[in-house]
Specification:
With about 475 residues, this protein is α/β, with parallel strands linked by helices. InterPro entries: GMPP_N, Man1P_GuaTrfase/Man6P_Isoase, Man6P_isomerase-2_C, ManC/GMP-like_b-helix, Mannose-6P_isomerase_type2, NTP_transferase_dom, Nucleotide-diphossugar_trans, RmlC-like_jellyroll.
């Protein structure tokens, strides 16, 4: 692949993955979890596009996830992280990516657009299909990847094959896109042999994408232009102009462009793809025991068959179940028949309407310096476990309504308390009275773990006045 044909990977990381609740939630969605290996899905995706043939990736993500993305891409040098101030589906995100790519590398830059959370088993086969897509995209086409259907899946869109391209072997025009069909329609499409699942991956030049957006979704492109024009840069992030980006219609690239354009093409690819859009699809791609079970974590089974059981820490016993999904986290349990996997989203919506924080938030909260989780809460007090990464430090801050007591469990803490500098080691502690200005830092080489006891009339996370912060937070 010549230098002129270096591809820019664009990873879309804006989804919440609600069908994988209770593991995946808005505060920590599925792309940040290790689902098919020891690496999180975002890193798995980025590593498929590593090497001399590729520019460093551009990741478009929710602003609230910026530090999660930065942390998980530490091993990917040069990654560019673009922050969406609000969710607006894939078309505005892709418009922004195309405009930034044109600005940085020119209109002929090839973009490989992909979701952050898909599973792909055969990466060499993926790169073979990518080479075909690249060749077709240089002729002005937007090329998607079609996956050979293995079942009458109603959770995927379908692509109908058109005429073969005369100049690019293995690539076809798109006759039409078919939205998620019902069961009988899906079965008919699979048996006909002329349809593929729509993977949601695309290859096109920045110029082609911008031109097609101008033709078919001018409101999207105009808002994206203004958002890029008003963007600011801080740390490793590109912050889009919030007011401009909010003007963009919330619409997918499929509706905005692909179903309207005359320049759509498809390359069939047998790459072991799954969008991991449900617990059933995760069961399908994971290794199974002799009885067809997939297990993760401390799980014991007796006479169970074809089940997916995942525990994030609590010993989980299952007896006599078949085709079941049971997922156990520290604050929620999901139990269902595997055939009902697409209905988890309905459960999440019900939890939201009922005001359950577990619908969107995990007990563990991630911050740029590490994470914390609640241990116990009562009237006028709460206890947290805090973990600070080596070299990281919290903001310089004070509280109006609470005092704090920090006890170091492991590692070393350098604490600023008003004018004092205090070095704490294991089993040592410090008291921070209400109103004092304080900061904690981990000067050591291992994670700092401490217990925080808060006491006061109000214990909300918004009772923070920051005076200085390494991470650009106000």
């Amino acid at each position: 692949m010549s230098e002129a044909r270096v591809i820019l990977p664009v990873i879309l990381s804006g989804g919440s993955g609600s069908r994988l609740w209770p593991l995946s939630r808005e505060s920590y969605p599925k792309q940040f979890w290790p689902l098919i290996s020891e690496r999180p899905m975002l890193e798995e995706t980025a590593l498929r596009a590593a090497g001399e043939a590729f520019h460093p990736p551009m990741v478009v993500c929710n602003e609230a996830h910026r530090f999660l993305v930065a942390e998980q891409l530490r091993a990917i040098p040069g990654a560019r992280i673009v922050l969406e101030p609000v969710a607006r589906n894939s078309a505005p995100a892709i418009a922004v990516a195309a405009l930034l790519a044109e600005e940085a590398h020119g209109a002929e830059t090839l973009l490989w657009l992909m979701a952050a959370d898909a599973a792909i088993e055969d990466v060499p086969a993926l790169h073979t299909a990518l080479a075909r897509a690249e060749e077709a995209a240089q002729t002005g086409l937007i090329v998607t990847f079609g996956m050979a259907p293995t079942a009458a899946e109603t959770g995927y869109g379908y692509i109908e094959k058109g005429a073969a391209l005369p100049d690019v072997a293995g690539v076809f025009r798109v006759a039409r896109f078919i939205e998620k069909p019902d069961g009988p329609t899906a079965a008919r499409l699979v048996l006909g042999g002329q349809h593929w699942w729509n993977s949601g991956m695309f290859v096109a030049t920045a110029g082609t994408l911008i031109a097609e957006l101008a033709t078919h979704a001018p409101e999207v492109l105009a808002a994206a232009r203004d958002a890029v024009a008003g963007a600011t840069r801080d740390l490793d992030f590109v912050r889009l102009d919030p007011a401009a980006f909010k003007r963009a219609p919330s619409i997918s690239i499929d509706y905005a462009v692909m179903e309207r354009t005359e320049h759509a093409a498809v390359v069939p690819a047998a790459i072991g793809w799954s969008d991991l859009g449900s617990w059933a699809s995760l069961w399908e791609v994971r290794p199974k025991d002799a009885a067809g079970n997939v297990t993760e974590g401390p799980v014991e089974l007796v006479d169970a068959e074809r089940c997916l059981i995942r525990s994030e820490g609590i010993l989980t016993g299952v007896v006599g179940l078949k085709d079941a999904v049971i997922v156990v986290t520290d604050d929620a349990v999901l139990a269902m028949h595997r055939d009902s996997a697409q209905d988890v989203k309905k459960l999440v919506e019900r939890l939201k309407s009922g005001g359950h924080a577990q619908a969107t938030e995990h007990r563990r909260a991630y911050r740029p310096w590490g994470h914390y989780e609640g241990v116990i809460r009562g009237e006028r007090f709460q206890v947290k476990r805090i973990v600070v990464r080596p070299g990281a430090r919290l903001s310089l801050q004070k509280h109006f309504h609470r005092a704090e007591h920090w006890v170091v469990v492991s590692g070393t803490a350098l604490v600023q308390r008003d004018a004092e500098q205090i070095l704490l080691r294991e089993n040592e502690s410090v008291y921070l009275p209400l109103g004092c200005i304080h900061r904690m830092e981990n000067p050591g080489m291992i994670p700092l773990v401490l217990i925080e006891v808060q006491s006061g009339s109000y214990l909300g996370e918004d009772d923070i006045v920051r005076f200085e912060d390494n991470y650009g937070r106000s």
